[in-house]
Amino acid sequence: MAAGSDDVGMKHSRSEHIFQAVFDQVIEISLRWKLYLQLFDSGTDNVDLLNASGSLVFGLLQRLMLYDIALAIARLTDPEASGQGKYRNENASLRSLISQVRADFTDSDSEEVEKLLGRLDMCVKQIRLHRNKAQAHADLQLSVQGLPGIAYDDLESAITTIQELMIITGRAAGHNIFHFDVIFPYGTDGRKLLETLRVAQRAQKEMSDEVRVSKSKATVQDGEPRKMS
User: Fold this and answer.
1) pLDDT surpasses 80 at 159
2) At 190, is the pLDDT very low, low, confident or very high (cuts 50, 70, 90)?
3) What is the pLDDT of residue 13?
4) Under 8 Å CB-to-CB from 225, ≥6 apart: which residues?
5) Buried (b) or exposed (e) across 194-228, using 16+ Cβ within 10 A?
6) At residue 81, what are phi and psi to the nearest 5 degrees?
7) Disulfide: which of 39, 94, 214, 228 matches 190 by Cβ 3.0-4.6 Å?
């Protein structure tokens, strides 16, 4: 029996809801990753500047940003649902979205999606292990034995692959997505922070130089010979 218009409308509405939920997550990951790159992967001069401006603060910020991005990737790569029976909960994940729009893939889309999912699974294996055993929970055995770190290349490759998958699934869902190059409002991004810190560092240096010159002059004056009366 053919599906009625109400059924089709409900399916479209559900697909659109899942698409928007997943799309928003991908945008957020792209934004945070770009900020991270601007601050911590834009040259040794900038890293030196951050360390000179507050190494403890920016070191903690760097770790928190990486953990946050890793957690977001782990959520996006969750299965369609978690739990079983009455405890089964659907996830707003990539696989859930792909399941909704799979019927609208072309043959080449389907082939590309499967290839990308295979690559993504490889990239996120360690990321998901960290989420499940160290970040969302504290596994005692791994706390004692230690857990290998998350590779930078895995994070970068996972984000790129997620973006590629989102472009294909978005097209199947009726959305034309061309890229995920986030554009920040002027004066609000990592570059602006670095520029502000650099200006402050120069001002501090100039002030220190002025104080040093002033002290030097005072020392010379104090040591000048005095005329005997």
Assistant:
1) yes
2) very high
3) 81
4) none
5) beebeeeeeeeeeeeeeeeeeeeeeeeeeeeeeee
6) -145, 155
7) 39
